[in-house]
Amino acid sequence: MLIVMKFGGTSVGNTQALSKVVEIVGKYREQGDDIVVVVSAMNGVTNLLLAAAHKAEEGDEKQAQQARLEISKKHAEATLHFLEKSIERKAAMTEINRLLDEFEALCHGIRVLGELTPRALDVIGSLGERMNVPQVTAILNKAGISAQGVVATELIVTDNRFGSAVPLIEATEEKTENKLRPLLKAGKVIVVTGFIGATEHGITTTLGRGGSDYSATILGRALKADEVYIWTDVNGVMTSDPRVVAEAHPIAHLSYAEISELSFFGAKVLHSQAIRPARRDNIPVRILNTFMPDHPGTLITAESQENGKAVKAVTAIKNMSLVTVEGPGMIGISGVAGRTFTAVARTETNVLMISQASSEQSICFVAPTADVPKVVESLEDELSREIERRDLEHIKWEDDTVILAVVGSGMKGQPGVSGRLFGALGREEINVIAIAQGSSEFNISLVVAQGDADRAVRSIHQEFQLEKP
Ligand code: ADP
Ligand code: ASP
Ligand code: MG
């Protein structure tokens, strides 16, 4: 079998975790599988890099020096543990230090210019994965697993939307096949940087926070892999965020449709776009625990398997705003919905939920709070005449809201699910601000105030008895 396996930040975060990685890769290798390993940066490194870049823009370079020390220490400890004072360690640390020099030089430039562009931010963000590849490659080689590192800028071609670049499938397939197939044929375990790609002109991009999951499925699809494994720090996709619901437990099976709703609406365990490449070619994806590798985790395939429950999981996505375009003259204005969303689209903002009351007096939608200023500006611009004529009142928005998504293929055609859902929230005296049900009937989404979110999630979890296996 050809397996693309991705190890997340905690799974490569220290010597104990890295020992597990060696064990896991070794085991599949012994079974005769071909393996592409996708690695994240060591736990916390990406945050350190990005925070230092932002500080540099504000005129503070010290944070970059501090971050360098911290990052360097993490790698020095890990390499010392596995490689001792060998030539291999020296080579890995030389490369890591070279990248850290680059990091400091970039932060210096940003401080001097007083400007941090999205493009520069992606270069800096990419460094954590770039540092980890030589480290993991050397550790595997030392353990007798013949490995070779590759930087994904040579494989994954993307557009130039820095910070959340979109892969260009054909170019990626061609590059990946040409570069990786010969290495696989030569019996190498290939170690690839997660999270990053490059434009057609070779400019580094990133796939969005948590993007190493996406890298794994992109490469899985490009290589026509048999399976993609996402090794992380929990026993699979759980009925809810385990940090919010203590009783949450892993779900044995999910369909592509179900996981795409869950990851889109905030289940951090998988990047929101990551299932798409796998889904297109029907590649099974497993979410597995690096620290409990014998646990079966979650298997994700095309079919939905009923587990006797209408609802399988509930998630929340925070820091959202509800934007409302409203006015007495709305009914008369032709194409106002179209113009509203065209204006939003111009800002490249991700709209997560839309609802329109049947009175047609208002349209409201939910978008990330960080994007709201540019969205409102674009709307006021587009609808300025209607606002002047008072056909539209000013555009309003409400911050500190959360979208909850209640997901499960068993909800389809089953009456009473919404009744129970709203009943549970009512008993908790939680005010529901807006509601939407996708036509898939796999998902009911609702908006509540951020302060109510955790309580709402727990009450829904309890109402649908998700704590029971
Ligand atoms: P990695 O570094 O391996 O990519 P992440 O931190 O990105 O790991 O994602 C795993 C984390 O996602 C878990 O530790 C858990 O706290 C969180 N999480 C949130 N929602 C869920 C969920 N529904 N199922 C499993 N984990 C979840
Ligand atoms: N290191 C990147 C991040 O922290 C990508 C990832 O971990 O998947 O967002
Ligand atoms: Mg992640």
Describe this structure in words.
It contains 15 helices and 16 strands. With 469 residues, the protein is α/β, with parallel strands linked by helices. Strands 3-4-2-1-7-9-10-8 form an eight-stranded mixed β-sheet, with helices on both faces. The chain has a six-stranded antiparallel β-sheet with strand order 12-13-11-14-16-15. A hairpin with a 5-residue loop joins strand 5 and strand 6 (204-206). Helix 2 (45-57) runs antiparallel to helix 3. The radius of gyration is 24 Å and the shape is globular. The mean pLDDT is 95. It binds adenosine-5'-diphosphate, aspartic acid (ASP) and magnesium ion. Magnesium ion (MG) is lined by residues 8, 210, 213.
Give the helices and strands, then pairings:
Layout: E1 2-7, H1 15-30, E2 34-39, H2 45-57, H3 62-83, H4 87-113, H5 118-125, H6 127-142, E3 147-150, H7 169-185, E4 189-193, E5 196-198, E6 204-206, H8 212-222, E7 227-232, E8 253-255, H9 256-264, H10 275-280, E9 285-289, E10 298-301, E11 313-326, H11 336-346, E12 353-356, E13 362-368, H12 372-382, H13 384-388, E14 396-407, H14 417-427, E15 434-437, E16 443-449, H15 453-463
Parallel strand pairs: 1-2, 1-7, 2-4, 3-4, 7-9, 8-10
Antiparallel strand pairs: 5-6, 9-10, 11-13, 11-14, 12-13, 14-16, 15-16
The chain binds adenosine-5'-diphosphate (ADP), aspartic acid and magnesium ion.
Indicate the structural class.
alpha/beta
- Classify the beta-strand content into a percent band: 15-25%
Spatial separation of the terminal alpha carbons? 31 Å
Q: Strand order within the widest sheet? A: 3-4-2-1-7-9-10-8
Number of helices: 15
Mean of pLDDT: 95
CA-based gyration radius: 24 Å
